[in-house]
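A reminder from the course coordinator: this example appears on the midterm review sheet, so study it carefully.

Given structure:
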């Protein structure tokens, strides 16, 4: 499993972009992880699925609400990563008002979740293999903090915890 001090694994995440700009056609667009994190501080939080109860009521909304504070604490971008396709992530982002605050990054095949070792087997519940619930701060590709939830919990991967960690890194 990924741990503090590790580099993020190589790979690709996808984002549905609804308007053309900065060389990106209307999506979904593929983004190389290593290139996207180079020279930046990224707050990444992973969750089991778009439109699921805890993810929709608590996890994602917390990051939308804390986006300005996270950016003031030195975070360049905030990524929500889930094992869903880019169209689902885009629709969920529209519903949650993430535009300009949180990038909705799709890990449709679960490649990133597997590469990090942060998978969660929800096949008994009909959801397949998903991502565990977690948050991390990544600086120039290196994991500086990592908060992994126990199954069924939402205690350490919230936006407030990551904000406090970002402030401590900046200090």
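Designed residues:
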């Amino acid at each position: 499993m990924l741990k503090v001090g590790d580099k993020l694994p190589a790979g690709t995440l996808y984002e549905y972009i609804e308007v053309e700009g900065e060389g990106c056609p209307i999506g979904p667009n593929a983004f190389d992880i290593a290139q996207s994190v180079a020279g930046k501080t990224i707050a990444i939080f992973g969750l089991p699925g778009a439109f699921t109860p805890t993810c929709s009521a608590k996890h994602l909304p917390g990051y939308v609400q804390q986006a300005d504070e996270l950016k003031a604490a030195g975070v360049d971008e905030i990524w929500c990563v889930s094992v869903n396709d880019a169209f689902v992530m885009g629709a969920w982002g529209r519903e949650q008002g993430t535009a300009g605050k949180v990038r909705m990054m799709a890990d449709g095949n679960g490649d990133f979740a597997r590469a990090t070792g942060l998978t969660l087997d929800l096949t008994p519940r009909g959801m397949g293999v998903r991502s565990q619930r977690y948050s991390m701060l990544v600086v120039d590709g290196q994991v500086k903090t990592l908060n992994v939830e126990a199954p069924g919990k939402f205690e350490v991967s919230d936006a407030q915890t990551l904000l406090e960690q970002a402030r401590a890194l900046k200090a």
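Strands lie at 12-15, 29-32, 41-47, 77-82, 103-106, 119-121, 129-131, 134-139, 142-148. The longest strand covers residues 41-47.
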